[in-house]
């Protein structure tokens, strides 16, 4: 199964009805703040969760909708292929107050939900304050962050985060005649044993005599190794205990033992920067997904803005990890970092399994913003769209952008030398164009067409010029010459 399209109606940032075609591909999304990228994350998360419980979409419907539209929000997902691998559309819908009845009949959606494969930057926020004194404590990062939604047999069917929240509520509850100290101690002790028995199993390293399929590092370590930090870690859980008067917990800590390049690091809190801690946390999270049975009809991985704490030397390994370890998942990634998005777009270009989208916040006549989704990142196509709308200035700018991009791509692919400038803004299309011309890859006819329209259209129309009359036919011919050039360059091995 693969998601073909996602329809979101009056949910969070999505005022009105929005259909996002993804056509079974992995999706890398750029979105400025408030553009709806996180709303898409939560829409898909709620959709899959609706396979096991009622999700009240009324609580998260767009606040600007008319009274007549209240209670009508929905999330509809169309899959193709279907659960049997056939080329058929199969649609499932989560409506405002009803359980996703279709997916309760089809266990594929339930199975996908059980992977708990949604990670947002909010789950990683604890990285900023896990260094307590002379130690690093990963308890909050794991229980309230990256492992918050995981559950298995020993948790009694509850998620780790929910189990710990219940304990925090129990320990904070005051005693009175209806809830005596003895009752409180008994309840806390019983619930704490359930939590400790479940949580400590994640840290018990298997031995030759004792297997432990729940060991947290079995799958996390191979992923961490691919970040190439030369780190070896072990985690120790200091089991939570109530204090003397049962008003708080003590010792609920996860400590880290660390080796770097084979040498023990005595003070990990001085050695582990934010990027390394992020790499460890992400590796644990991805490893916990891989510990689940993998034979499922549909597997999704959604990573919302998690590149925030990673520099470029960690971002690229993560992209490779996703391709090597999660090749059979449909992956959704969001970022607000436009330069990084542009880099990844070039990195993914030509890979049939990926597409890119851009989310923007667009103000409408009523004074508030809605998402505007650009699902066609072909600059030539955008130029043609604006040409048909008689917006010749926009058409010319996109045509020029398409021309420059094709030249830079070709020089990069063929290793063609271009004069070096320290500042990117000093590079002009002329530098790349002259470098390519000198290689004798093109016919004189192709060169002449480009030369003609560079002067008449691509340069002139892209600037403010009251003496230049923008002519649609010239723009169309310029676009045709760029498409012809693209075909010529793409065909050169």
TrEMBL record:
Protein origin, superkingdom: Bacteria
Species of the source: Chryseosolibacter indicus
Protein name per Swiss-Prot or TrEMBL: AAA family ATPase
Annotated ranges, domain RecF/RecN/SMC N-terminal: 3-345
Alphabetical list of SUPFAM superfamilies matching this protein: P-loop containing nucleoside triphosphate hydrolases
Pfam families for the chain: SMC_N
């Amino acid at each position: 199964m693969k998601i073909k399209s996602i329809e979101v109606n009056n949910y969070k940032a999505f005022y009105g009805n929005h259909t996002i075609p993804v056509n079974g591909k992995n999706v890398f999304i750029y979105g400025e703040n408030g553009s709806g990228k996180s709303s898409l994350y939560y829409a898909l998360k709620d959709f899959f969760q609706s396979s096991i419980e009622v999700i009240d979409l009324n609580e998260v419907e767009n606040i600007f909708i008319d009274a007549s539209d209240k209670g009508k929000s929905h999330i509809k997902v169309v899959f193709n292929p279907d659960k049997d691998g056939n080329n058929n559309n199969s649609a499932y819908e989560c409506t405002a107050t009803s359980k996703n009845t279709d997916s309760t009949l089809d266990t594929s959606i339930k199975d996908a939900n059980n992977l708990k494969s949604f990670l947002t930057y909010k789950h990683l926020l604890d990285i900023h304050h896990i260094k307590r004194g002379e130690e690093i404590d990963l308890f909050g990062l794991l229980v309230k962050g990256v492992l918050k939604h995981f559950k298995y047999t020993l948790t009694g069917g509850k998620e780790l985060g929910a189990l710990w929240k219940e304990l925090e509520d129990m320990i904070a509850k005051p005693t009175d005649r209806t809830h005596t100290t003895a009752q409180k101690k008994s309840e806390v002790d019983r619930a704490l044993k359930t939590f400790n028995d479940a949580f400590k199993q994640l840290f018990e390293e298997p031995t030759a005599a004792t297997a432990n399929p729940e060991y947290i590092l079995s799958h996390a370590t191979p992923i961490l190794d691919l970040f190439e930090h030369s780190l070896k870690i072990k985690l120790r859980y200091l089991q939570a205990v109530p204090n003397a008067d049962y008003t708080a917990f003590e010792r609920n800590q996860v400590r880290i033992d660390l080796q770097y390049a084979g040498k023990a690091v005595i003070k990990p809190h001085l050695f582990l920067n934010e990027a390394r801690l992020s790499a460890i946390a992400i590796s644990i999270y991805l490893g916990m997904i891989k510990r689940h049975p993998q034979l499922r009809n549909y597997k999704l991985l959604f990573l919302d803005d998690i590149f925030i704490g990673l520099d470029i030397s960690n971002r690229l390994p993560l992209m490779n990890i996703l391709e090597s370890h999660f090749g059979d998942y449909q992956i959704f990634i969001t970022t607000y970092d436009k330069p990084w998005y542009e880099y990844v777009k070039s990195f993914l270009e030509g890979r049939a399994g990926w597409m890119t989208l851009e989310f923007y916040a667009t103000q409408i006549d009523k004074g508030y913003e809605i998402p505007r989704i650009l699902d066609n990142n072909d600059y030539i196509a955008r130029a043609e769209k604006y040409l048909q709308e008689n917006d010749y200035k926009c058409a010319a700018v996109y045509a020029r952008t398409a021309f420059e991009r094709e030249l830079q791509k070709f020089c990069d692919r063929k290793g063609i030398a271009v004069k070096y400038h320290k500042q990117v803004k000093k590079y002009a299309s002329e530098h790349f164009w002259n470098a390519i011309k000198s290689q004798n890859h093109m016919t004189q006819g192709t060169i002449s067409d480009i030369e003609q329209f560079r002067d008449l259209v691509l340069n002139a129309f892209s600037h403010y010029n009251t003496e230049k009359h923008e002519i649609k036919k010239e723009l169309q011919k310029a676009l045709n010459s760029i498409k012809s050039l693209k075909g010529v360059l793409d065909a050169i091995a």
